[in-house]
Fold this sequence. Notes:
heterodimer, A: 144 residues, alpha/beta, Rossmann fold, five-stranded parallel sheet, 5 helices, 15% strand, B: 515 residues, alpha+beta, five-stranded mixed sheet, four-stranded antiparallel sheet, 12 helices, rod-shaped
Amino acid sequence: xxxxxxxxxxxxxxxxxxxxxxxxxxxxxxxxxxxxxLDFLFGxxxxxxxxxxxxxxxxxxxxxxxxxxxxxxxxxxxxxxRTRLLPVVILTTSNEERDKLRSYTLGAxxxxxxxxxxxxxxxxxxxxxxxxxxxxxxPPLVKV
Amino acid sequence: MxxxxxxxxxxxxxxxxxxxxxxxxxTFVVAAGLYHxxxxxxxxxxxxxxxxxxxxxxxxxxxxxxxxxxxxxxxxAEGLAADTFYAPEIFSSxxxxxNQHKAYNEERKAAGLEEIYYKMAAFNPRNSVNKADxxxxxxxxxxxxxxxxxxYREIVRIGDKDYLFVAxxxxxxxxxxxxxxGNREDAPLGLQALYPxxxxxxxxxxxxxxxxxxxxxxxxxxxxxxxxxxSSFAGLLALAGLLFFNARLRGMVxxxxxxxxxxxxxxxxxxxxxxxxxxELENRVEERTAxxxxxxxxxxxxxxxxxxxxxxxxxxxxxxxxALLEDYGAQLDDTxxxxxxxxxxxxxxxxxxxxxxxxxxxxxRGEIHRQEVDLSGMAEEIAEELRRGAPARRVAxxxxxxxxxxxxxxxxxxxxxxLLGNAWKFTAKTEEARITFGREEESGKxxxxxxxxxxxxxxxxxxxxxxxxxRLHSFQEFAGTGIGLATVQRxxxxxxxxxxxxxxxGQGATFYFSV
Lengths: 144, 515
């Protein structure tokens, strides 16, 4: 399962298309803002009662999000015992050094800048999928 | 300013006149006093000399009368001398003293001294040499009338010389004198024989019959007076001069001190002004810095949102255009596909523009971290990257090794990136393309340059080269956003350097810059 946290429907559609194009057929759960993403991960709010044994293999996290932004989401993910080891890839339009620095400081596993050129973006998604979903061993599920 | 402040104290010329007049006045009063004192002293000295002579005379008189006469009378009483024997040479004290004084004067003359006039001046002299002159007669009468007057003195002028004249009453006639000065018949026979007239006889006891008249020259004393006075006056003048100069000096010192004080005050005031101006400037700078910082921050967040918000829709346009091409390509004819290609190219170009704009804004803000930068090494790296990006191209790079400057490595990298990137771009259509990075000396200064033999440019537009979004070539000819050189210029300026370009259409371009 992949958790895509993205508020821009265009980017969402394009990301989903890129995943499909690259034969990444995992289920994709989409959260439209930071709160929704955290609700899903911790089984709260609209996702209350969700089976928390099912955790995404990777979280694709945009930084510019309504309500709670991506970096705060990342911070909360790393602060929680259950999600501490979740692979998180920051996907963002920003090319600001400080965003990159902060992402890695907060424990992002990758930082991918969404290029304007969709072909490049698609290629990035392909490599991400290859690494995080195929090559990388998922972290052990943490029972709480 | 100096003259002004001087006159505001007091007019020194007039003041010194006043001081001079006062000093001179005091000097002359003191000099007059001094002269008077010196005169008294000199007269006193002369008098003492006379007194000394008279004392000697008196002693002689006394010796003759008190020692010699008794011996003589005893000899006569014992019959050893004849009753009639008398000789003034050995009996008369006045005779002896007169001649003794004569001898004394001769000795004085021999010693180069002026004679001291001496006379036993009598009214009724036995010996005519003792005859009193008019003044002496008058004085004898005066002394007889005023017995308490013991002396008389006067400065008399004889010829062209001054003398101190002193007259003293001689012994008052006593009984014992009457033996020789009383009745002629009572006097010793020898004496009677020697002095035939009545001169010296018929004197009465209790009367003063003669004065000792004596005149000492004052020339010597005057000489002394002049010396004493002249030297003391000279000393006084010197002292007055010193006092005057002291006053002048003090005045000068006072004036100068006052001037200095004013200067110091002036300087303090100036310093205070400078300090205030500095403070104001500092405040203004602080204010401006704060404003700039605020503006920078705003610009920062603006740039940030631009990078996000402008790029996101672009990505959508590009992505969906590609999706159309890929997913519905079969349903589209070539024109439609061409249009979509143009849409995508536009998106990419706009993306580049946004990126360059962001770089321009980012590089022109922020602090400069100066360090030694190996520009030659940097240029080699960039050349390598460019070659790798287009392996098919044949471009000769000539990079002078060892060019090191002091500057911000990241910013200078952007400069070389842009300049070498431009050179690379504009030599794309040049055969045997050559790009040079080197150093030249121009009027004593080191100038760095990047030269190519590419498309070049028209010097008429040289000044437009560095404006943002200024392009001298059509996009079809050479792609680019027109921001690179603006960025380069801004970085160079921020390093305190300068940049200019030289070129000719078709002959390549050279960018000279200093850091």
